[in-house]
Amino acid sequence: MAKKTKLFRHKTRKTKEEVSEFLQELGQKIGEGEVVLKQTPDDLVLDMPKHLSLNVKVNKKNKKVKGTRHKMTISLSWYDSDHKDDPLALG
Fold first, then answer.
1. Alpha-carbon dihedral of residues 64, 65, 70, 74, nearest 10 degrees?
2. Is residue 3 domain-resident?
3. For residues 54 and 73, what is the distance between their CA atoms, to the nearest angstrom?
4. What are 3-19's pLDDT values in tens digits?
5. Residue 33: which region, alpha, beta or left (left: phi > 0; alpha: psi -120 to 50)?
6. Which residues, in sequence order, are bridge partners of residue 76?
7. How many domains does the chain have?
8. Domain that holds residue 26
9. Is 52 within a domain?
10. Phi and psi of 77, rounded to 5°?
């Protein structure tokens, strides 16, 4: 069985404007081909491939104390092999 390695995790509360700004900046960095996630002691640098799998999931759960919690998960996934150029491409 393959082992999963956690590379980065961060959770914080932000205003919807701050979240929007972060997602816009993240989208721009993905488009440019490199995302740098700041962490101590070393930053995590992700070289983005040309093609990614995009998964968007939304659900809700009733919590007894706080009420209904809504959750949107946006997931990007890729393989190391996605960085390789098409072997049939012309140069």
1. -100
2. no
3. 11
4. 889 899 889 999 999 99
5. left
6. 54
7. 1
8. 21-81
9. yes
10. -140, 155
